[in-house]
Specification:
The chain has about 250 residues and is an alpha/beta fold. It has nine helices and twelve strands.
Length: about 250
């Protein structure tokens, strides 16, 4: 059985996979438990066959995982790196290693799970958008601040807004206009994310006028966003893990 780790800027998600399929495990804030990550995730005495990782949390996290896997089980950690062409996907970057491993794994997962044209939107600390055509060619992507990051940036870089951003009140009868500062900040960040998704959808209709494409939402904020979008929108919160699982099978 393989252990799969999707390590974001603040959260870690994990799953196990064997011949019968993928079994999501859970998620945790890795800053709080970095020194004992593997002990908490894999308490069994039998080691995993492989540990396959998408890591965007930096070199220090990578070194901790190597030390823990080597010390506990004497095995190496396999860190995913985007390639020019592999797993049915061709990367748009001239230097593919500069594409985040989470974005690469999500594209691989989308290619296997949703054949055809697809737009992957990962709503985490950052919002990433990656577009792929029916032949698996990665057309390119976008990166923007995530919903929480927008909110934190606004509160940290202002005085009056930050001073009036406690005890949120309900939204107005209009359903999207706030009637106090805290709710205005929260809803404003959400509307920015929704506006980006709507704009991407509009641009894709220009690129592919027949409308034959899917938008796949993943990441921590995806569950809050998906219900507000129209069109062929799919919620797949474990897309990165599915991509890692496919890489482990090849």
């Amino acid at each position: 059985m393989n252990l799969l780790l999707d390590i974001g800027n603040h959260w870690l998600k994990w799953a196990t996979v064997d011949a019968s399929g993928l079994f999501p495990g859970g998620r945790l804030r890795h800053e709080e438990t970095a020194d004992e990550l593997l002990a908490g995730i894999w308490p069994m005495s039998i080691p995993p066959q492989r540990i396959i990782v998408s890591n965007v949390a930096g070199n220090a996290m990578a070194e901790k995982l190597r030390e823990q896997a080597g010390g506990r089980w004497g095995i190496d950690v396999e860190f995913v790196v985007a390639q020019t062409q592999a797993h049915g996907v061709r990367c748009a970057y001239d230097k593919p290693e500069r594409l985040g491993p989470d974005r690469w794994a999500a594209l691989v997962g989308a290619r296997q799970r949703y054949p055809g044209r697809v737009c992957v939107v990962d709503l985490g600390t950052a919002i990433t958008v990656d577009v792929m055509d029916e032949d698996g060619r990665h057309v390119g992507g976008l990166i923007a601040p995530g919903i929480g990051l927008m909110r934190r940036a606004l509160l940290s870089e202002t005085r009056d807004i930050a001073g009036h951003s406690e005890n949120p009140m309900p939204l107005s009868a209009a359903g999207w206009l706030a009637q106090d500062t805290c709710a205005a900040v929260d809803q404003g960040a959400m509307e920015c994310a929704l506006g980006l998704c709507d704009r991407v959808m509009s641009q894709l209709h220009r690129l592919w006028p027949d409308g034959a494409f899917s938008m796949v939402l993943t990441g921590g904020d995806s569950a809050n966003v998906v219900g507000h979008l129209t069109g062929n929108v799919i919620h797949d919160p474990d897309l990165v893990l599915h991509g890692l699982a496919f890489m482990g099978r090849e």
